[in-house]
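Escalated from tier 1: guanosine-5'-monophosphate holo job.
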Amino acid sequence: MEEKILAEGEILPGNILKVGNFLNQQIDTDFLKEIGKEIARLYKDSGVTKIFTIEASGIAIAVAAGYELGVPVVFAKKNRSDNISGDTYVTKVDSFTHKTTNTIVVSREFIKAGEKILIVDDFLANGNALIGLCDIVKQAGATVVGAAIAIEKGFQKGGDMLREKGLRVESLAILDSMTYDGIVFRAQ
Ligand code: 5GP
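Tier 2 regenerated the structure:
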C-alpha cells in the first residue's frame, strides 16, 4: 500500500490524498485482491460474521475482504432513506471530504443482535465515518470486532483516538505526515 501511494497517490489541498488511480475511481483489481487477502489475514481468527462499510468508496474493499473471509457485506447508504424500506438504523456522519453532514441509513434486517461485525473503509481521518458505523452496530446489539482501513491519515487523530478507546484498528498504511515535500509513513 505504501509503495502504491508513493507511486500513484496525489496530494490535494485540504489534506486530501487522491487515490482515484487505483482505489477510489479506477480500481486496480489485482491490488484490490491483495487488500482483501491482507484484511482476511488480520481478522481470520476474530469470528467475523459480517462486514459493514459505507457507500461508495468503502464497498470495493469490503467486498474483497468479504470474499476472502467468506462473509456477506452490508453498506450504509447516505441520505437516501426513501430508497430503503421498513425499519432502519440511522445516524449522522460529518463528511471530511465534502464538508457536509450525511444521515447514514441501513435496514435493520441486515445487522442483527449478536453478530460480530468487521468495519471496513478506504480512509480514516478524523474518525467520524467509523464512529457512525460503530454507532449503528451498537444500535443493532451487535459487536464490532475491529476496523480494517486501507489508508489512515495518522496526522488526523481519528485512528489514535479510537485505539485509545479500545477499538482494534488495523490500517494497511498509516501516514504520519503528508506535505508537498513528501509522505512519512508510520512504522508498524
Ligand atoms: P473521517 O470520517 O475519518 O474524518 O474520514 C473518513 C471518510 O472520509 C472516508 O470514508 C473517506 O471516504 C473520506 N476521506 C477522508 N480523508 C480522505 C482523503 O484524504 N482522501 C479521500 N479520497 N477520501 C478521504
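The chain has a mean pLDDT of 95.
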